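Thread: NAD(P)-dependent oxidoreductase, structure

OP (GT): Posting the sequence first so everyone is looking at the same thing. Length is 480 residues per the record. Can we get the structure tokens written out before standup tomorrow? I want them in the notebook alongside the other entries.
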Amino acid sequence: MADTSLLKFVDREQAYPAKREPEIRAEDFREIAERYAAPEAEDQAGRCSQCGVPYCSVHCPLHNHIPDWLRLTAEGRLREAYELSNSTSTMPEICGRICPQDRLCEGNCVIEFSGHGAVTIGSVEKFITDTAWEEGWVEPLVPGTPRGQSVGVIGAGPAGLSAAEYLRVNGYDVHVYDRYDRAGGLLTYGIPGFKLEKPVVMRRVDRLKAGGIVFHENFEVGRDATLDELRQRHDAVLIATGVYRARAIKAAGVDKKGVVDALAFLTASNRKNFGDTVPAFDDGRLNAAGKHVVVIGGGDTAMDCVRTAIRQNAASVKCLYRRDRANMPGSQREVNNAEEEGVEFVWLSAPESFTGGDAVSGVKASGMRLGAPDASGRRAPEIDPEGGFDLPADLVIKALGFDAEDLPKLFAAPELGTTRWGTVLVDNKTLMTSLDGVFAAGDIVRGASLVVWAIRDGRDVAASMHKYLKAKASAGRKAA
């Protein structure tokens, strides 16, 4: 029987679930590591030092009760651990898979600072909730007492789904409108299966549908209804669209065939893995097979692209990033995974132009060096006059991040206030936009960010909308 006592970080080494060998995992889109068996999960949870000030919780956007559910796991009390984990998060097993724990909870673990290696929080979180699904502990979504009010949610990504769940529990009729044919947003179409297998997302969506949340898929606001029309249908509306407009690369030849956006590439791959017919993949435009692939960018989306290209049997995969490894924004774990799978990183480099005829055949790159710090404090990259080089490329994937679409124009709502970055402007306390009864949350407010922040924003905006709707109902009763 496993030793489940706590504070064992000195004599018990950190151990993540074993990853499959790179050559094997690069052949499919399954997650690269299996989950813990129960004894191993209990052992690793038992390494927690149970500190008085749990920095792991402080640095978790959801402020999950991490030391408490680690203690319960170490004691073999898994159902209680699940219930506690689930009390602060609508998607704990998803966060356990895709959160950059090395930058959040695990990166701020006290025993990590002491040199003993952080508690493997994300892997334990995944284990707890996956076990809960298998054991039938995940209860159906039970709607609250009907309030006679309805809410429209625009966007079925993590912020929209999280808010929809809380609002349904509070008794509202909830309608979710999404442009895609499946709910989940980036969870479904933007994140590859080797990080987040799609049945994990779909079972969450199915639970929401079974709880009475109505999904309107293939529905585009601006095409199928204006924002104003949705305001007439519902007592309140939430904008949770995320940000999808790819940032441009300022380089000659960027319009050549074979220079594509990251999201188009990832969506095509995920659709193929669902079994969909994807013409742009089947005719080779969004398929890396046999090609020399160059990905531009250093964030998590770039990591998703290079690792997807490997699995599509690319001839070679290179990632160009204008800063060095220590200054890249993406997860270092993802960089390590990519390198194990055969990706070559070309640090301190940036595209100068894309060469070839109608179709791209190469990248002319500039070498970069780090100069003086910019406004954020990071050393700004500048061109190194002696560092240019050329790379062959049949497929170039732009992964420089995302900006907000022009929602006032897209939604036929010119009165919708936005910031100078194009994100939706909200009151910081209420999260309401410039339009009465219209709220916004997630990346469309904060800019491209993490899934865990979107879930947190969904939780916060649902509470604010609940307060607004109760006041609206009360005012209506008084007027009657």
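GT: Both are above now. Quick notes for whoever picks this up: Residues 86 and 253 are 49 Å apart (CA to CA). The first strand starts at residue 150 and ends at 154.
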